[in-house]
Amino acid sequence: MTDRVTALTCARKGGLPVETVTSASPAPSLPRLGMPAPPFQAETTHGTIRLEDFKGSWLVLFSHPADFTPVCTTEFIEFAKLHPEFTRRSVELLGLSIDSTYSHIAWVRSIETLFKVTVSFPVIADLNKDVATLYGMIMPGESKTETSRCVFVIDPNQIIRAMIYYPLTTGRNMDEILRVIDALQTTDKHGVATPANWRPGDEVIVPPPKTVEGAVERMQMPGITCTDWFFAKKALPK
Amino acid sequence: MPCVKPDGTLEPMAQAIVRALRTPRTTEGVCEHLRLPLYRVRSTMRELVEAGLVAETAGQYGLTPAGQARVAQMV
């Protein structure tokens, strides 16, 4: 990561390794918005997958605490039901928990049998916690052995565009994840921002001007709803 | 290598891709032909290349002699 300075020196003293961490040492590696998603290779229910395999598609990488638990089961059912909606937006889904591939397979098959829903996206078996650690999915204050309900929205260039964290006890709002994706894709396509509670079809925010002349121009600009020079909305072409 | 089973036979996904590569194709071409997501084809194709069954030339993937022999066994 370019924004971090690693100043870790290792020396041997009295036969034991000694780590000297200077004040410039980085915090534990955590993903940041706008930065490249940390690359990984992982075993999944669809075989060995690398992050780079998703290049060119949007990706929702999400973790759940454990297989065969009730809240996670409701989430998987909803992710599976909405899978076509994600696909329609060119978004792939990739689940993760600290369980084995066999556990994932058994759980996914149980969901299919019990709830008549097919889980057709891959699930990472992160038994060594490699990916979970890389993405900061374990919240030791909640659990040291389970991943929390984390969601990473990664764009086709593999840049992290959104991160959402839910605690162990609270199931995710899938509609909000879809809404965030709609908003990000709208921003990319039209160079606009989206206001609170925005939904596709609503007016979008026109970025504020950065010069005095731009502010004057903005107040007279046709085709936008201009409340003040810094606060203008417009409808997008349908 | 998950696409190759311990007994040396191929997983269903790998079988489908190897069959599709009787005609050389790009990764995207395989996706279109089999209606599969890109990540699935990329990851399986990588393993087939590592297994020596598929080779890439100028962006096109095709069967190696070993791959052709494997397809002949499958048919």
Describe the structure.
The complex is a heterodimer of chains A (238) and B (75). Chain A is 27% helix and 25% strand. Chain A is of the alpha+beta class. Chain A folds into 2 domains: 29-190, Glutaredoxin (3-Layer(aba) Sandwich); 191-238, Antioxidant, Horf6, Chain A, domain 2. A 5-stranded mixed beta sheet of chain A has the order 7-6-5-8-9, covered by helices on one side. In chain A, a hairpin with a 5-residue loop joins strand 8 (149-154) and strand 9 (160-166). The longest helix of chain A is centred in the first third of the chain and has 19 residues, at 70-88. Chain A is elongated and about 65 Å long. The two termini of chain A are 40 Å apart. Chain B has one domain: Orthogonal Bundle (Arc Repressor Mutant, subunit A), CATH 1.10.10.10. Chain B contains 4 helices and 2 strands. A two-stranded antiparallel sheet of chain B has the order 1-2. In chain B, a hairpin with a 2-residue loop joins strand 1 (54-57) and strand 2. Chain B is globular and about 30 Å long. In chain B, 32% of the residues are buried. Chains A and B meet through strand 4 of A and helix 3 of B.
Mean of pLDDT of chain B? 91
Tell me the number of strands of chain A.
12
Order of helices and strands of chain B: HHHEEH
Parts with pLDDT < 50 across at least 5 consecutive residues of chain A: 1-23
What structural class do the secondary elements of chain B suggest? Answer: mainly alpha
Biggest interface goes to: A-B, 13 and 14 residues
Instruction: Calculate Rg of chain B over CA atoms.
Output: 11 Å
How are the strands of the biggest sheet of chain A laid out side by side? 7-6-5-8-9
Report the strand count of chain B: 2
Determine Rg of chain A (CA atoms, Å).
22 Å
- CATH fold category name of chain B: Arc Repressor Mutant, subunit A
How many strands, what sense, and barrel or not for the largest sheet of chain B? 2 strands, antiparallel
The count of helical stretches of chain B stands at: 4
Strand content of chain A: 25-35%
| CATH classification class of chain B | Mainly Alpha
CATH level 1 class label of the largest domain in chain A: Alpha Beta
Mean pLDDT of chain A: 89
Percent of sequence in beta strands of chain B = 5-15%
- Tell me the distance between the termini of chain A: 40 Å
Distance between the amino and carboxyl termini of chain B: 23 Å
